[in-house]
Specification:
Number of domains: 2
Mean pLDDT: 91
Low-confidence stretches: none
Strand order of the largest sheet: 2-1-3-5-4
Order of helices and strands: HHHHHHHHHHHHHHHHHHHEHEEHEHE
Number of strands: 5
Oligomer: single chain
Structural class: alpha/beta
Helix content: 55-70%
Shape: globular
Distance between the termini: 69 Å
Length: 496
C-alpha cells in the first residue's frame, strides 16, 4: 500500500491546529471527565484503581491507560494531548486505508481532488475535534477500532489478519460498545466474505477472548447485579428523541444547538445517499461494506434508545472515509461541479460545528460551555474569611478542591460532603452554585438539598448573584423534552 505521507501530514496538522484553535486541550474538564480523573487521582496502586473503577459501568482498560500517565506527572492538559494523539492516529489510519481502497478500484491512481477532499474531511472531522481530546474511553476505543479494521482489511498475509484480534479484544476491554463492532464484523466475514477456516477462526477468537478477558469480570458483575439499571440508564430515550439527538450530535460535533440543526441537514442527507450508493451488490466482499455495516449497527443501537453521540467517536473516521469514497465516485461519474457543491456543504457544516465547540449561546450540551473561569473569579473576588461552597455542578467542585489557595474552604457537591454542614461549622461567606443536573429529576433529593441550603443560609442576606453561561435554546429544549430549563446554565449566589 502506498504511503501518502504529504496527505497524512497535512491532515494531522490541520486536525491539531483546528482542535487547539477551537479551545481543546487547555480547557476545563466536563462532568464525565471529572469522574474518570477522580478514580485515577484517588488511587495509590493498580489494585486500588481497579476497586474504584469497579463501581462504574466500564471495563478497566481506560483507567489502566490513564494511571501511568497520572503517575508520570502529566497534567489534565497533558492527558488531553495524549487523547488527541490517539484520535489523530485513528483518523490517519482510516485516511490511509480509504486512499488505498480508492486506488484499488481506480487502477492505482487517486485523483488530486480526491486527496484534497480526504485531507479536509479527515482534518476537519467535527466530532473528532469536539471529543477527540476527552479524558474518557472514546479516543482509546477509536484507535483500537482503527487498528483492528486496518490490520484486517489491509493485511498482506494471514498472520497480520490474525493480529487484528488483539486490538478488537482490547477494545472490548475498553467499552462494551464493542458488541456493535463485533456483530457487523461477523456478518461481513462469514456472510459477505464467506471466509471460514476452522484453524484460523478458532485461533482468532481465542486471541480475542484473551485480550477481552480484562473486561469479563465487569461484564459478569453488570449482568448479575446492574443489568436492569444499566439498560434503563443507557437506553432511556424514546427512539425518535434518540435519533434526533444522535443525528445532531454526531454530525454537529456535539456542539451545535437544536435551533442550529438546519446546518447539518445537507451533510446528513448526503451521508444517507452515500451509504446507499456505496452498496455493491456484485461484490459483497467489498471492504466498504464493512464500513456500512458499522453504521448500520450504530443505527440499531440508537433506535433502541441510546442517545450519546460522543460514544461513537470511533465512527468519525469511518464517516470521513465513506464520504471520501462517495465524492471520489461522484467526481468520476458526474463531473466536478456537483462534487464541489456537496463537498462545500459537508465542509460548511463541519466548520460551523467546530466554531461552536468551545463558545456558543446555543450549546448541544449545556455544561460544555459554562464559563468556569468567570465563576472562580467571582468566588475569589467576593470571598471573606471561612467559606462554604455548595455546587450542583461537579466541575466547579473539582476545580475548587484543586486550588491550593482555597484548601481551607469547605466544598460540597450537593450535600455529599456532610462535614461541611456540621452544626459547629461557622462561615463568613456562603456560595451556592446551582443549575440543571442529572439529579434534577429526583424530586426527593432536590427537596432535601434545597432544605439544607435554606438551613445553612438562614439569617443571612444575599449580597450578590451572577449568572454563568447562556443557553438561548433553553425554551425550545424545554418544549421538546418537558424538562424546565433556565436560559442561564448556572447561577451563583453569595450569602453573608
Amino acid at each position: 500500500m502506498r504511503i501518502y505521507a504529504l496527505d497524512l501530514i497535512s491532515s494531522v496538522t490541520l486536525f491539531f491546529c483546528t482542535a487547539l484553535l477551537a479551545g481543546r486541550v487547555w480547557r476545563f474538564p466536563f462532568d464525565d471527565e471529572v469522574s474518570t480523573l477522580t478514580y485515577v487521582e484517588r488511587s495509590h496502586s493498580i489494585m486500588e484503581l481497579l476497586s474504584f473503577a469497579d463501581s462504574g459501568f466500564h471495563p478497566p482498560l481506560l483507567f489502566l491507560f490513564l494511571y501511568p500517565l497520572h503517575r508520570m506527572g502529566l497534567s489534565e492538559a497533558g492527558m488531553r494531548i495524549c487523547s488527541l494523539g490517539l484520535t489523530a492516529l485513528s483518523l490517519l489510519l482510516f485516511q490511509l486505508l480509504a486512499l488505498g481502497l480508492i486506488a484499488q478500484r481506480s487502477s492505482g491512481h487517486v485523483r488530486l481532488s480526491t486527496r484534497l477532499i480526504a485531507v479536509l474531511l479527515f482534518g476537519l472531522s467535527p466530532l473528532a475535534i469536539g471529543q477527540g481530546d476527552a479524558i474518557r474511553w472514546y479516543p482509546v476505543f477509536a484507535l483500537l477500532f482503527a487498528l483492528f479494521i486496518t490490520l484486517y482489511l489491509a493485511a498482506g498475509n494471514e498472520a497480520t489478519r490474525l493480529a487484528s484480534a488483539v486490538p478488537l479484544g482490547l477494545a472490548a476491554s475498553t467499552n462494551f460498545v464493542a458488541v456493535i463492532v463485533i456483530a457487523p464484523f461477523l456478518l461481513y466475514r462469514y456472510l459477505l466474505e464467506r471466509r471460514f477456516r476452522a484453524s484460523f477462526d478458532v485461533a482468532y477468537w481465542l486471541i480475542f477472548a484473551f485480550f477481552a478477558g480484562l473486561g469479563l469480570p465487569k461484564l459478569l458483575s453488570i449482568v448479575k447485579d446492574q443489568l436492569a439499571y444499566v439498560v434503563s440508564f443507557e437506553f432511556g430515550s424514546s427512539p425518535l428523541r434518540a435519533v434526533a439527538t444522535h443525528v445532531l450530535g454526531f454530525f454537529g460535533g456535539d456542539a451545535l444547538g437544536v435551533s442550529q440543526a438546519w446546518v447539518i441537514i445537507p451533510v446528513a442527507l448526503i451521508t444517507a445517499f452515500a451509504i446507499f450508493s456505496e452498496i455493491d451488490r456484485k461484490h459483497p466482499a467489498d471492504p466498504v461494506h464493512l464500513f456500512l455495516l458499522m453504521f448500520g449497527a450504530m443505527a440499531l443501537m440508537v433506535l433502541a434508545g441510546f442517545a450519546k453521540p460522543r460514544s461513537f467517536l470511533y465512527l468519525a473516521p469511518v464517516l470521513a472515509a465513506i464520504l471520501t469514497f462517495f465524492l471520489d465516485r461522484q467526481s468520476r461519474d458526474r463531473g466536478g461541479g456537483r462534487t464541489t457543491l456537496m463537498a462545500a456543504l459537508i465542509l460548511a457544516a463541519a466548520v460551523a460545528a467546530i466554531a461552536n465547540v468551545d463558545h456558543s449561546t446555543r450549546p448541544f450540551k449545556r455544561n460544555a460551555v459554562v464559563p468556569y473561569r468567570q465563576i472562580l473569579d467571582f468566588i475569589r473576588t467576593n470571598e471573606k474569611g471561612s467559606v462554604l461552597i455548595v455546587s450542583t455542578d461537579p466541575v466547579v467542585v473539582w476545580e475548587l478542591r484543586h486550588q491550593a489557595a482555597q484548601r481551607q474552604h469547605c466544598v460540597s457537591y450537593f450535600i455529599q460532603n456532610g462535614a461541611c454542614f456540621a452544626i459547629d461549622r461557622r462561615y463568613d461567606s456562603i456560595f451556592v452554585i446551582s443549575g440543571q443536573s442529572h439529579l434534577s429529576r429526583n424530586a426527593g433529593f432536590i427537596r432535601r438539598f434545597e432544605a439544607k441550603v435554606t438551613e445553612v443560609t438562614a439569617g443571612r442576606r444575599k449580597m450578590a448573584e451572577m449568572h454563568a453561561g447562556l443557553d438561548q435554546d433553553a425554551a425550545l429544549k424545554s418544549r421538546l423534552t418537558n424538562i424546565p430549563l433556565d436560559e442561564f446554565i448556572l447561577s451563583v449566589q453569595l450569602y453573608e
